[in-house]
Amino acid sequence: xxxxxxxxxxxxxxxxxxxxxxxxxxxxxxxxxxxxxxxxxxxxxxxxxxxxxxxxxxxxxxxxxxxxxxxxxxxxxxxxxxxxxxxxxxxxxxxxxxxxxxxxxxxxxxxxxxxxxxxxxxxxxxxxxxxxxxxxxxxxxxxxxxxxxxxxxxxxxxxxxxxxxxxxxxxxxxxxxxxxxxxxxxxxxxxxxxxxxxxxxxxxxxxxxxxxxxxxxxxxxxxxxxxxxxxxxxxxxxxxxxxxxxxxxxxxxxxxxxxxxxxxxxxxxxxxxxxxxxxxxxxxxxxxxxxxxxxxxxxxxxxxxxxxxxxxxxxxxxxxxxxxxxxxxxxxxxxxxxxxxxxxxxxxxxxxxxxxxxxxxxxxxxxxxxxxxxxxxxxxxxxxxxxxxxxxxxxxxxxxxxxxxxxxxxxxxxxxxxxxxxxxxxxxxxxxxxxxxxxxxxxxxxxxxxxxxxxxxxxxxxxxxxxxxxxxxxxxxxxxxxxxxxxxxxxxxxxxxxxxxxxxxxxxxxxxxxxxxxxxxxxxxxxxxxxxxxxxxxxxxxxxxxxxxxxxxxx
Length: 555
What we know:
Layout: H1 3-6, H2 9-35, H3 59-72, E1 90-94, H4 102-109, E2 115-121, E3 126-131, H5 134-146, E4 149-151, E5 154-160, E6 181-187, H6 195-202, E7 208-214, E8 219-225, H7 228-238, E9 242-244, E10 247-254, E11 269-271, E12 311-312, E13 329-330, E14 349-353, H8 362-369, E15 375-380, E16 387-392, H9 395-405, E17 409-410, E18 413-414, E19 416-419, E20 440-442, H10 454-458, E21 468-474, H11 480-489, E22 497-500, E23 510-515, H12 519-529, E24 533-534, E25 543-544, E26 546-549
Helix pairs in contact: 4-7, 8-12
């Protein structure tokens, strides 16, 4: 039984509402960005879209262009400014560098006035900053329009937000009356996140009492600190930081529960005030006795082995903490596959059961699983109908696939994804599937693998399945009607909303978003149409349609 299932109904409701609140808050933020003309960054998009158009212009020219686009575009002939955003205590900050954390924003912008709250948007390199007074926000926006304002060494750009207040999970106006429990959302989780990982990251900043990890909307966790002050320091120092280089990015808010209830100590929950907490099995009068004890003598108590070299604490050099409060360095743990702590030996092979007998084949398994790691081989098992072995690039990829694809529905059947006892897929007993295709296929050399290099892997934002798909690498001549016709031809559900991103004049492809009625429909469309070859008249080479799950929850 999981930690959340074993918690009391009231506490389970609190955890569930926290996840829903975070999702709602992200929707509000995304809606605000759309109103301000923001184009979302998705997999495969140019990261420069967050910054101002340069074309060799000076910083002053860029600022002038920014102000003109924000304030001048809506002016009518009679002088009325129809689209100007009215002053707000909330400022939208853009053009941040990837390494920025909340503490950097506070250090750079507190000279304009008291700051109430900060919301980081790490992958968009943006943030929302709420000042105590509109006058402070006005000084920030005006100053940024007149002269460069640098945050963590990089020039940032400012405009008023359409919101008058940043929604907080705690609904507390005064951050000093905040909560000692933080809600952490781990974005782009390329490596497993466990209580050991989060404790190693958080405890050097403030004493951690309890941790609970849950995976309802991606990977989220609640961390309870010893005091509100410890939680505030941790939020400022870690909000927007990467646990590992280029991935596992932390987005931190205050949680609503004021105390966590932990019933067992394991990789998904831990009470550090009760180090020997063990879950009792209420179904049996007594536990079965183990002949050789709890674990083999060769088993290491430190599941992560030796720590990796010391890394600077994100933002610590600029965050105002005394040396007594926080050490200068934090030892981050090495990533480890969850397979090694789930009782199985680490394996790069996943076993997938519950596959539809006539609608699933090797290519369609590749289309779905390639979002979470490279695919080497796929083989259907003749002795177990509806089951396949998927050999991936490493055990981390298998862990990501299990986290995000286990128990999802595809073509009316629920997938079961787990670690296989096999360490490689052997092409034996090859037979013909119901659709006429082969039961085995080698994908090691395909160009459609998305994690073949560090640069390529960094563009993949690991997302759980959602009702919105991001499409890219599509020829400009393809319209909304073409894509709807493609869905109909392949007997998959059509999308209900469509959005095309503005392409650069020199771009040879287009991209956008497709929203479906349900997550299940989006999964089925991606499974069938991902990597579909689009041929255009007089074109020498076809375009490979690429799909992935979007960071947006709706259009």
